[in-house]
Design goal:
Elements: H1 20-30, E1 35-42, H2 47-58, E2 63-70, H3 76-85, E3 90-94, H4 107-117, E4 125-130, H5 135-140, E5 145-148, H6 153-173
Parallel strand pairs: 1-2, 1-3, 3-4, 4-5
Helix pairs in contact: 1-6, 3-4
C-alpha cells in the first residue's frame, strides 16, 4: 500500500469546534467546500449502529455522506470501485472484528488494499469503524484511525473535520507550481 499523508507531519491546524453549526462553518471556511464521506459496511449485527453513525454525520451540512452496504456474497471489488468513484475525502469501513480474527482475511483490510489498487488518492483518510475498535489496532492493520461504534458521533465528526482540513492544506500547499525555464 502507498504511503498515506500524516497530519502530524504537516502544519498545525486549529481544533474544530464541538457545536454542529460551528463545525459546519469551520469545515466550509477551512476546507473551502463540503467534505465527501464514503461509508462501506457489511450487513450484519452492527448495521443499526453503523446506520446511526451515518445518519449523525449526514446531519452536518458540511459532510456529504454516501453509504454502500455490502451484502453477504456481494462483489467487494465492485463496491470498492463505487466508493473510489466518489473521489471521497474520507472512507469509513465498518467491520465486525473478533478477538481471534486474522487481519489479512478481514474484508475491510482487503477493501483497503483494493482501494489502493484502484488508485484511491493517497490523501484520502481511511478509518476502520466497529465495536471495540481502537486506533492502534486499526493502524496495525493499515488504517489511519480506528473508531469504536459506541463513540459519540460528534467526536468522530470533529476528527474527520480535522483530517479533511489537514489533507486539503496538503493539496493546496504540498506541491510547487511548474517551473518554466
Amino acid at each position: 500500500m502507498g504511503q498515506r499523508f500524516s497530519f502530524s507531519a504537516h502544519e498545525e491546524q486549529s481544533d474544530p469546534p464541538a457545536q454542529p453549526a460551528a463545525l459546519d462553518g469551520w469545515i466550509l471556511s477551512t476546507v473551502g467546500r463540503a467534505v465527501v464521506v464514503a461509508m462501506l459496511h457489511q450487513e450484519g449485527a452492527e448495521s443499526a449502529s453503523f446506520a446511526h453513525l451515518a445518519e449523525a454525520l449526514a446531519r452536518y451540512a458540511a459532510f456529504r455522506v454516501g453509504v454502500e452496504r455490502l451484502s453477504p456474497g456481494a462483489d467487494l471489488r465492485a463496491s470498492v470501485r463505487k466508493i473510489v468513484s466518489l473521489a471521497p475525502d474520507i472512507v469509513l469501513l465498518c467491520d465486525e472484528l473478533h478477538l481471534n480474527y486474522q487481519p489479512d482475511n478481514a474484508w475491510s483490510v482487503r477493501a483497503l488494499r483494493m482501494a489502493d489498487e484502484e488508485g484511491m488518492h493517497l490523501l484520502t483518510f481511511v478509518a476502520l469503524v466497529g465495536t471495540g475498535i481502537e486506533r492502534n489496532a486499526a493502524r496495525r492493520m493499515g488504517f489511519e484511525y480506528g473508531f469504536d461504534l459506541g463513540q459519540d458521533p460528534s467526536c468522530i465528526a470533529r476528527v474527520l473535520a480535522r483530517e479533511a482540513a489537514a489533507r486539503e492544506a496538503a493539496r493546496r500547499y504540498g506541491s510547487s507550481p511548474p517551473c518554466y525555464l
